[in-house]
Amino acid sequence: MHRHEAHEHLAPDEAPPDLSDLPEDWQEVVLRRLEMTKTESIRREDEDRKTLDEVFDRQTLLVLYKFISNGFLETLDYPVSTGKEANVFHATDPQGKPLAVKIFRTNTATFRSFMTYIAGDPRFGHVRPNRRDIVYVWAQKEYKNLQRYFEAGVRVPNPIAWRQNVLLMEFIGSEGTPAPRLRDAPYDDAQKLYEQLVAQYRLGSEQGGLVHGDFSEFNILHPSGAGPVVIDVAQAVLVHHPMARELLARDAKNLAAYFRRQGLKGVTAEETLKAISPPERPQRPIDREPVDEDEDEDDFEDE
Ligand SMILES: Nc1ncnc2c1ncn2[C@@H]1O[C@H](COP(=O)(O)OP(=O)(O)OP(=O)(O)O)[C@@H](O)[C@H]1O
Ligand SMILES: [Mg+2]
User: Fold this and answer.
1) Residue 235 domain flag
2) 60, 62, 135, 233: which is deepest, by most CB within 10 A?
3) Which residues face 169 on adjacent strands?
4) 86 in ligand 1 pocket by Cβ < 6 Å?
5) Are 159 and 231 in a shared domain?
6) 234 CB less than 6 Å from ligand 1?
7) What kind and span of H or E run contains 170?
8) Of the residues 137, 155, 174, the one at which a domain ends
9) Residue pLDDT, tens place only, 27-54
10) What is the pTM of this model?
11) What CATH number is associated with residue 201?
């Protein structure tokens, strides 16, 4: 974060928010971070610190604060992943249940690529192209896509809540450790896994109406003793999106290539594409009432 940018977020004489219903250790953390966003005298000691400063800007702290006061969140524990677009933390809810908190960065994200996926989606077409708002829509898109996948029965983390650039979801893993990515997970039956993933994908496209768009060994978690879990769905698009076919074909190609590398020599992109594609949309009889094409337009949730 550039320092002059931080200044714009908080006027020097702005009163701190009332944090009295926050646990004491949290009050301290929030106040310290808020303080940091408005003072010039911050020494940035190392990269980790810089990352944390970037992620926990004032606005994000207030969102976390809101989640705590609304009873969604109790503790924010430690980072499990520091990515280019988002940081993921282990957290717990007031019942002690583990959560994953995905915080999208509002300052360093790759906005141009976001727009490609947002434009063309009737659910989000009316977004103002402002830096922060785009990230909020991106996070909301991940939330809504998770909901769609979850309702369709696809194994994804159960989405718990979304607000601005912060997404709360079920933690996939055990004893505080996230499940390994497919890339790092040992397994012995590649054929079975291929079939499971094809079935999950197909469920998502057929029942959920979504094309993942970044389906790879990096975005699939593989808990030991359980089936694969699909993550990182912000870029997933509706099957009628102008880019859907292209993304579907790319996902099929990557999936097939991955499993060929795992020894399934006979797997082809063509057969994989066929297996993961949603059924062709039935032609609407002309004498029937028109179906609302923009079925999703209205469920844009206002803050
Ligand atoms: N629900 C979850 N439960 C446990 N761990 C998770 C969960 N969601 C994400 N993670 C962890 O965070 C990592 C990154 O998540 P994700 O792929 O959604 O973010 P990303 O935006 O792609 O980040 P990157 O820029 O690193 O690719 C995952 O590989 C996984 O280790
Ligand atoms: Mg990812």
Assistant:
1) yes
2) 233
3) 100, 159
4) yes
5) no
6) no
7) strand 166-170
8) 174
9) 776 766 666 544 444 444 556 666 777 7
10) 0.79
11) 1.10.510.10
Tell whether 218 and 143 lie within a shared domain.
no
Residue 194 lies in a domain: yes
- 197 lies in the same domain as 140: no
Provide the token pair at 104: 């999208």
11 C-alpha vs ligand 1 centroid, how far in Å? 34
- CA 35/CA 15 separation, integer angstroms: 11
Give the distance (Å) from ligand 1 centre to CA of residue 163.
18
Same-domain check for residues 165 and 47: yes
Helix, strand, coil percentages in the chain from 3-state DSSP, rounded to 5 = 40, 15, 45
Domain range for 232 is 179-276
Catalytic positions: 214, 232
d(CA 50, CA 56): 10
**160-190 residue pLDDT tens:** 999 999 999 999 999 999 999 999 998 889 9
Whole-number Å distance between alpha carbons of 89 and 100: 6
Most ligand 1 atoms within 8 A of CB, residue of 89, 232, 233, 235 to mutate: 232
Nearest 5°: the CA angle 265, 219, 256 is: 20
What is the tally of structural domains in the chain? 2
Cβ of 169 less than 6 Å from ligand 1 = yes
**Quick check: helix, strand or coil at residue 3?**
helix
State the DSSP string of 243-297: THHHHHHHHHHHHHHHHHHTT-TT--HHHHHHHHSPPPPPPPPTTSPPP-TTTTG
- pLDDT tens digits, 220-246: 999 998 999 999 999 999 999 999 999
